[in-house]
Amino acid sequence: MGRRIRQGFVLSVTLLSCGCNEDADRLARVFHKISTKFDGVTEGLRDKLHNGWGAVRGSVSETSLDSRVALRLRWDSDMTGADVQVRLTASGVVELTGSVADLTQRRRAVELAGTTVGVEGVLDRLRVEADADKP
Fold first, then answer.
1. How would you class 1 by CB atoms within 10 Å of its CB: exposed for 0-12, middle for 13-18, buried for 19 or more?
2. Is the pLDDT reported for residue 94 higher than 70?
3. Rounded Cα–Cα distance for residues 4 and 72 (Å)
4. Residue 68: closest CA among 126, 121, 118, 108
5. Most exposed: 2, 8, 43, 67, by fewest CB within 10 Å?
6. Architecture of domain 65-132 in CATH?
7. What is the DSSP letter of 40?
8. How many Å apart are CA 60 and CA 7, to the nearest integer?
9. What average pLDDT score do residues 64-83 get?
């Protein structure tokens, strides 16, 4: 808002120097009222945004660890077609079960699980479908 006040001040000084004292005073008062109202409106908006962000952060921290890992696996484009279940086995340790198409997907699943905030260990019990097709 400081920038707007400076602009208003510059405008007022410019009009004063042109000999329009009465108009300059009137414009300065109008500008002051507008800036005060704008500050009031944006202050409430800042509070709402701050509170909303706090709610989002709180809900993410309350989301269970296995759910966060499962969401990461579900939304990763490299994991298309994989059928992976996630289970929390101990504090900070998740177990991955199910099947993946190839070794690359298996590595990606373990990497995504291991890099999820709060995960301290990953138990890899995934089946690779390409291996199951071999005699």
1. exposed
2. yes
3. 44
4. 118
5. 2
6. 2-Layer Sandwich (3.30)
7. H
8. 42
9. 91
